[in-house]
Amino acid sequence: MTAPPPPDPWKSFRGVMAGTLILEAIVVLLALPVVARVGGGLTALSGGYLVGLAVVLVLLCGVQGRPWAIWVNVAIQLALIAGVFVQGAIGILGVIFLAVWLLIAYLRAEVLRRQKHGLLPGQQLPPE
């Protein structure tokens, strides 16, 4: 009888990153009514910016298996922070999500470190 393959820690990690992107896209779309009511209101530029950014976030869900995906996720936060020119609250959202993505990048580095040292639970030998 062969032992089952060890669990893949990156499969669940990709799911966490994709789920975070979906949540971020939802939050960006929920900012539409805020932008419409506050400041100069919703213009074609501000609405296009927010909807376009939400579409990019959803599309990024499909590339989360790539090794560079985490860094694209962090970089896209700069575009969200630039939303401060649309509405100040959008820039604040960008800073909050940048902190979330930096935490995810740290957790990724920690999983990599533990994997290299053989410390992940799936890498442990079963008790005899």
Q: Write down how many β-strands occur, each being a DSSP E stretch of 2 or more residues.
A: 0
Radius of gyration: 19 Å
Query: Structural class of the secondary elements?
Result: mainly alpha
Largest sheet: none
> How many H/I helical runs?
4
Percentage of residues in DSSP E strands: under 5%
Keywords: Membrane, Transmembrane, Transmembrane helix
Protein name: DUF4233 domain-containing protein
Transmembrane segments: 12-36, 48-68, 74-107
Question: Could you list some keywords that capture this structure?
Answer:
mainly alpha; 0% strand; single chain; 128 residues
Structure commentary:
This protein is mainly α and 128 residues long. It has one domain. 69% of the residues lie in helices and 0% in strands. The chain is built from 4 helices and no strands. The longest helix is centred in the first third of the chain and has 29 residues, at 9-37. The radius of gyration is 19 Å and the shape is elongated. The model has no long low-confidence stretch (mean pLDDT 89).
What is the element layout, followed by pairings?
Elements: H1 9-37, H2 44-60, H3 69-81, H4 88-116
Helix pairs in contact: 1-2, 1-4, 3-4
Could you write a compact summary of the structure shown?
By secondary structure, this protein is mainly alpha-helical. It is 69% helix and 0% strand. The chain crosses the membrane at residues 12-36, 48-68, 74-107.
